[in-house]
Design goal:
Blueprint: H1 3-9, H2 13-20, H3 30-54, H4 60-75, H5 92-104, E1 108-114, E2 125-134, H6 137-143, H7 159-178, E3 183-187, E4 191-199, E5 202-208, H8 217-226, E6 232-235, E7 243-245
């Protein structure tokens, strides 16, 4: 169920109609923002209830701990998911089943690392080294206690996590378009490309930028090493070539 469907299912027909008729060039009224934030929190609360209702009783505390750890895990410098950071005293073997439950429920995405962008990519993936993203960036924002206005302002204290949210947005767009969860490429500690996707017989690296900054050192290193037929830079820039504006990712990359 998407956000629009959730609104309708909760009798918010008038709010849906008002949002649909709101010009894209005009800001959402403050009263709407407060209402939508409350609805996002209601969705998060309903997820917690689903944990208790549908998951094995002994898995509920683990599911909740993993779920709430995702923003902090993504905020780490390299974003790698570390089981021991979920809850002190718990290890991978204690949490793997709970994580699989979240993956199977479609609530999170697991993006594994590859060191060589060859086909089939799954054969070159390290599934023990991965990042966990949420399946909805609105919920990620709400869980992270970020005001919606933070995305519209230039704010140094939000700059780092803004990149994380942008990555999560791009991932959701890629999954929605292809139905497949991509991988990401990492070469030791020297370079990292956010996503690597397969498009026909091509393997395409996708670098994500949360601003109009065009510096893509990692993508340049990847290109030098593997000479891909095509590269993609997903950012706010609209300069053509291998740049795809964030708002046009729905058309595919």
């Amino acid at each position: 169920m998407n956000f629009h469907e959730f609104l309708l299912a909760n009798g918010e027909d008038l709010l849906c109609e008002q949002l649909e008729n709101l010009p894209a060039t005009k800001p959402v009224p403050a009263a709407f923002v407060e209402k939508l934030d409350a609805i996002l929190q209601k969705i998060l609360d309903s997820y917690e209830l689903d944990f208790a209702k549908h998951a094995p009783v002994n898995e509920f505390p683990k599911l909740s701990a993993i779920w709430h750890s995702i923003p902090a895990q993504l905020a780490r410098e390299n974003g790698k998911f570390i089981f021991s950071h979920v809850k002190k005293g718990l290890r991978a073997k204690d949490l793997e089943d709970a994580l699989e439950w979240l993956l199977s429920a479609g609530m999170v995405y697991k993006v594994a690392k590859i060191e060589k962008p060859f086909m089939p990519m799954s054969s070159y993936a390290d599934f023990s080294y991965f990042k966990i993203y949420m399946a909805d960036i609105g919920l990620l924002r709400r869980m992270s206690k970020l005001p919606a206005a933070a995305f519209l302002e230039s704010c140094d204290i939000f700059k780092e996590f803004k990149g994380t949210v942008t990555e999560n947005y791009v991932l959701c767009e890629l999954v929605n378009k292809s139905g497949e969860v991509p991988f990401y490429w990492k070469s030791g500690n020297s370079a990292e490309v956010d996503f690597v996707i397969q498009s026909g017989m091509d393997i395409v690296p996708v670098e994500v930028k949360s601003s109009d900054n065009a510096r893509v050192r990692s993508l340049a290193e990847y290109s030098k090493k593997y000479s891909p037929n095509r590269t993609v830079i997903a950012s706010l820039r609209n300069v053509g070539g291998n740049h795809v504006p964030l708002y046009l990712l729905w058309k595919g990359v």
